[in-house]
Amino acid sequence: MTLARPILAGLAAAALIAGSAAAQDKPGPAAAVSEDDGKWQAEDGTPTFHVDADGTVDWYTFSGFRRYHSECHVCHGPDGQGSSYAPALAKSVQNIDYYKFVETVVNGKQEGNLVMPSFGTNKNIMCYLDDIYIYLRSVGSGEVPRGRPAKHADKPASFTEAENACMG
Ligand code: HEC
Prior knowledge:
Bound molecules: heme C
Order of helices and strands: HEEEHHHHEEHHH
Oligomer: single chain
Helix content: 40-55%
Number of helices: 8
Radius of gyration: 15 Å
Distance between the termini: 13 Å
CATH class: Mainly Alpha
Number of domains: 1
Structural class: mainly alpha
Shape: globular
């Protein structure tokens, strides 16, 4: 089986960061303070959403909306609102930080009968994990309404480059 190198590198980095950030679990403010080719960062450097005055969301929020609904929705419910089986991720991202979020999706989690699968080798999820996180932050904030975003920014060139490198 082949696993693209960027994924392995990314996972190793995520594991390292998760280890070093283990002490502080609460995420910092989600407000976007800086931008790099259409991808926004919060004050603590974690990926976050951005919405223009006219309601246009950044590309990552839109991409995350699509990925969430193809990969996570079945258990976690529409719009990250939760189900009888799995927690509301729009809330989770306000309680656990980015590194814990990534670590949970990579390694999975099990408490009693509830099983969150491990997705560390699933490129359709790992290559878009920031997108999913950014989208969940956006609905969790209440600044972006539930449902498919009506207007979104164009796809940045760096998104396509990273996607091609990750998907191989
Ligand atoms: C097969 C069902 C299933 C799928 C698909 C699934 N999850 Fe989960 N997930 C769960 C369950 C159940 C839990 C609760 C596990 C526990 O508490 O032990 C969970 C927990 C989590 C948590 C921890 C939440 C918290 O508040 O601690 C995160 C983060 C998470 N899932 C992210 C995702 C993402 C992102 C996706 C899509 C890429 C996804 N999950 C897809 C079932 C699923």
